[in-house]
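quick one, 304 residues, struct below
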Amino acid sequence: MPMTAAQRAQWQIHFCVLLWGFTAILGKLISLPALPLVWWRMLLVVAALALVPRVWQGLRRMPIRLIAAYAGIGVLVALHWLTFYGAIKLANASVAATCMALATVFTAVVEPWLARSRFSRGDLALGILVLPGVALVVGGVVPEMRLGILIGALSAAFVAVFSSLNKRLVERADPLAVTAIELGAGTLALSLLAPLMPQIFPAFAGTLYVLPGSHDLIYLLVLAIACTLLPFTLSLIALRHMSAFSAQLAINLEPVYAIALAALLLGEQRELSVQFYLGVTIILAAVFVHPLLALRRAPTTSAR
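---
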């Protein structure tokens, strides 16, 4: 029996989330420091998008002010990825993925101001309920990893800010053109930041303009094409045949996939305690409850 378009969309979005789960694993496998790792990832994606005629057509239709707005968001995207991979280097893939689960909570707080949406006391209360889980996660890792948790939480905050800003502008331009602008601006921002990084955060610093070794280059290509461009395009196709709520539930599984893959491929469960996983459970429970509460609050329309 052939699949319906909706069923195919469900499989597609879960495949996308699984691919996104591999980004943390690849970040651990790539030996480059966080700065050159992110710079190469963004540069490779922009180079691939530059070959797509639709991107150039979308750029020609955009006013300068809108391009500038997307470029500013792109700087935030670059800072998000920089801190995300920095958290992986300072801790591990499981810790960084857990921190990303906090993005939903941060978004509930900042979105009303940035996207001009309605403030929800329930969302704020849910954010407060996550704090015990965060405390357990911090207490469940060795002290050397705690800086990684702090950097990972900062990365999740960047996600909340740039996703809320993107939401305000989401319908104003072609998604592929927007991606090219944001990642292009992010690449430029990291290029300007690179000379300052040894003084700002030496652990993230690294040489940009030297071709990575064959081992790292292969992983970077997989990261850029298979874990960035492919799921982005596939998710756009899937969203034509499924609700935003269904997509959000699937996307919330990304930390789960990343932690499971880290245990399976990297053996990271040996580095973490039961207390850590208990904290993860509390955080993920809040992440999954949030869209359910949002669905209950959404106004219903009567059939006519």
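Residues 33-215+270-295 form one domain.
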